[in-house]
Design goal:
The chain is mainly β. It has helices spanning 2-22, 90-97, 122-125; strands spanning 24-32, 36-39, 44-47, 56-57, 62-67, 69-72, 77-82, 101-105, 109-114, 132-137, 145-154, 157-165, 172-176, 186-194, 198-200, 205-209, 216-217, 222-227, 240-242, 247-252, 259-260, 265-271, 275-282, 294-299, 311-325, 328-336, 348-353. The chain starts with a helix and ends with a strand.
Length: 354
């Protein structure tokens, strides 16, 4: 009976020893297994970039916006045609149609006048740009009248842009300095012509078009917005740059107010689902661990917690390249796991292979 008890004691000790040998523990650190670069989808100026290295982003979070180039109406008028659509290259549209859109000016008529019709005096034959003038139709003895402004003077000729009144194309008119059309105030004459449509274009790709044919616009009104470069798929929802994945910001390569081109790296992310634990395995311990092994691990900073969390993971890979520190040969191995909010890059962990 005494021999049996001794045998059972030895057997229990052997089992405990075997169990202890079966568990191997390694010290490790939380690292990222992947880096994602977030690039500018088009060119522009960076606005409101307040993200710093170490910030945590969720997928779809706004990183920044890229300032657009805004194109405004050069004069009052009506939009008569729009040839560009969002996503179009304005260089291509301009080459094909001459402009992104056209406006018919509010003032439809112009007169190329000559002082040969002026009253014969120095004062009436010396005209200046910016003068307000009064127009009378020669063909119908003044039934059509209008007001205008001299917009250019070259030698004996000058140009008048009508600003109000009633005129007809191709009619002959006389131009005066007074509204009652006094003979001694006549400064010239000419023929009524149509003011050319105003072409409006830009450079880069069209992001937003704010008008459509038939719209009446005023000088300085926003017509459309462009961005630099071409748009992938000729499409962009807006001028925001969004996080393609959730993760930790590793580096920020852009700054507010700085111009960027399409494809420039704005920042890099460590995706949260790519976090791993890196451990170092001595060459003498390689036999005790292999890829696919299940492991458990704890975080060093939680060691004093009453209910210290225990995480599970799997040996994802073991490097075939060695590193020698202090003469000891070791190999890097990486543990994959599902991280929670408590786990951060650089944390120390204790990994047990079961």
């Amino acid at each position: 009976m005494k021999k049996l008890a001794t045998f059972l004691s030895l057997l229990l000790a052997l089992c405990l020893c075997t169990s202890a040998l079966a568990e191997v523990t390694f010290e490790g650190v939380v690292v990222s297994g992947e880096t994602v670069s977030v690039t500018a989808p088009f060119g522009g100026t960076v606005e409101n970039l307040r993200i710093r290295p170490g910030s945590v982003l969720s997928q779809g979070d706004e990183i920044t916006t890229l300032q657009t180039t805004k194109v405004y109406a050069p004069s009052d008028g009506q939009v008569i045609s729009v040839f560009a659509a969002p996503g179009d290259s304005l260089e291509d549209i301009t080459a094909r149609y001459g402009a992104a859109l056209y406006l018919t000016p509010e003032n439809l008529y112009t007169i190329e006048a000559d002082i040969q019709y002026a009253y014969s005096s120095t004062e009436t034959k010396y005209v200046m740009s910016g003068e307000t003038v009064y127009i009378s139709c020669e063909d119908d003895k003044g039934k059509h009248t209008a007001e205008g402004t001299i917009t250019a003077v070259t030698g004996t000729t000058f140009t008048v842009l009508s600003t109000s009144g009633e005129l007809k194309l191709n009619e002959d008119v006389r131009i005066y300095r007074d509204s009652v059309h006094s003979a001694k105030q006549k400064i010239g004459g000419g023929t009524v012509a149509r003011v050319a449509d105003v072409s409006v274009t830009g450079t880069g790709s069209l992001l937003y078009m704010h008008v459509q044919p038939g719209d009446t616009v005023t000088r300085g009104q926003l017509l459309f917005e462009t961005v630099g470069g071409t748009l992938d798929g000729l499409y962009a929802t807006d001028n925001r740059v969004l996080a393609p994945v959730g993760g930790i910001v590793a580096n920020v390569n852009a700054q507010t107010g700085a111009p960027v081109n399409k494809g420039d790296c704005l920042l890099t992310l460590y995706p949260r689902d790519s976090l791993q634990i890196q451990i170092s395995i001595s060459e003498y311990d390689l036999a005790s661990i292999q890829e696919g092994d299940a492991v458990t691990f704890t975080l060093s900073y939680q060691a004093d917690l009453p209910d210290m969390p225990v995480y599970t993971g799997v040996v994802d890979s073991i490097s075939y390249l060695s590193s020698a520190e202090s003469g000891e040969v070791s190999y890097a191995a990486y543990i994959s796991f599902t991280p929670d909010d408590a786990i951060r890059l650089g944390m120390n962990a204790s990994v047990t292979v079961e």
